[in-house]
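REVIEWER CHECKLIST
Item 1: Sequence provided? yes
Item 2: Single chain? yes
Item 3: Sequence as submitted:
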Amino acid sequence: MQMNSSNYHGSRVPGSWAGAGLPGMTWLALAIFIFILAGCGGGASPPAGIPAPVSSAITVTAPNENGFVTITGAAGAVPGSATVTAGNVNNGAVVRWFEKPFVSVAHALVQDSVVANADGSFVITTVEAQVGHTIRLRYTLNSFISETTDKIVPNNVLLLDSALTPRYADIHRATNIGYVTSGDGINGQIFQVDVTGLALLTTLTINNESDIQAIAVDEVNNVAMVINDSTDNLTPIDLTGPTVQAAVNIANNPQNLAVSPAGGYAVVGLRDTNSLSIFNTATLAVDCTYQITDGVLGATHVSTPFLQIDNDGANDIVVSLSQFDNNSYLVTRSRVDGCAAVPPLVTLQQVPVNIGNPGGFAVYNNGIDVFISDRDGDHVVRVNMSTAATTDIDVGDDPIGIVVNSNNNQAYVINSGGNSISQIDLNSNAATTFLDPVGLSATQFGFNASNDAAILASPTDHTAVILQLN
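Item 4: Structure as written out by the authors:
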C-alpha cells in the first residue's frame, strides 16, 4: 500500500528527504546512524554511571627484559569482577568503548583482558610496550563499557652522576628503595633511589673510601653495609636517616658480603685467608670468623670473589666461590650454626669448577644449585652441590651479573659485551637472549622478590636501571 502524508505526524511531505520513498531497512539504518551521532558524539561518553578506571590506582612498569610491561590495578581501580582490557595504542590496540578492537598481525600481543578481583584489583603482564608508549584501559560490566584511562609507560633508566661510576646495588624490599654504590677516586658515594618512581632521593658520601666492593641491606635492623677493600673496612649506613655510621675494621681484606634471609647478620668474605666473618648488624661488630678448609684442591687460596646466603628451612646456608693460585675455583656450601657453636659454620659440600673468569654468582634451591657466569666462555656454569655435576649453559657475550627469581624459576644474566640479557629456564636450562637498549654492565643485582623488581648499576652510562624480571 502506498503511503501519503496523511499517514504521518508532523510536516514531512512527499518528495522531501524524510519521505523520499526509502526502503524500511534504509530508514532503520539511518535511525541507528543518527542515534550513534547524537547519543555517542562520534566518540563521546558511554552511558552515565560507567566511569573510567581510576588512574591513581593503576601503575604501569617500565618494560621488562622481554619487552612486556606489568599493569597493576590496586583495590578500587575498577568495579569488582569487571573485565579489564589494556592495550598499547602505539602498537595498534584500540580499546575505546565505541570502536572495534583491532590487533595487527605484526603486534599480536598489544592488548589483553583479565577479570578483576572482587575488590577491583587486577594485574596484566602480557602487553608489549616501549618507554613512552600509551597504555589505554577500560572495563566492561553488565554489558556496559566504561570510559578509558591512559597511562604512559615510564622510563627505567636514571642518570645518577655523569662524573661517577656506579658499580654495585641492593634493594630494601619492604620500601622498594634501592642503594647504588659509586666512587670518585677519593670518596665513596651511595645513591638512594626510589625504585617505584625512578627518582634519586639522596646521595651519601663515605669519606676516603673510594674502593667499594659490595653492598647489602639488612631490613631487620634497617642498615645497609658496604665493603671497602683498600682500607679493610665495613661502613654501615643507618637507613632511617639515611646516615653514614663509623667504619668498622674487618681484617684480612674484606671482599664481599651477603645478608641472612632472616636478617640480623651478614657474612663477609675475606680475600687473604679464605675465611668468612659473621657481622652482627645490630651491634655493628664481628662476632666470629671461620676459615674454609680446602679439602679438594690442595692449592693456595688467593681470593673469595663471591658468596651468597640461602636457607633450607632450618638453617642458613652460605655458598662461596674461592679462587686458588693455580687459577682453579672451588664452590663451598656450608651450614651456619652461629657463633655460639664450634665451629660456627659446618662445611657440607665442596665442588671444584672449571671457570675461566667468573663474573657473577647466584644460588637457588637451598644453595644446592649454584650459577656462575663465565666471562671467558660466554656461558653460565650450573653446579649441583649434591651430585657435583656441572652444566654449561650458553648465554650472550661477556656475561657478568646474574640473579635467580624463584617466583618463576628463571635466572637472568647481564651480557656486558653484547648489550643483552639472557633468561634461563631453570627447569630445562634453556636460555633465551634479548637485546637490551641501555647497555648494562652490572655485576651485582638488587632484587625484590615481592614484586620482581631489580635495580642494577650501569658503570658505562653512569645510571641506575630498573628491570621487571617476570
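Item 5: Key structural point noted by reviewer: The CA atoms of residues 68 and 126 lie 6 Å apart.
Item 6: Recommendation: ____
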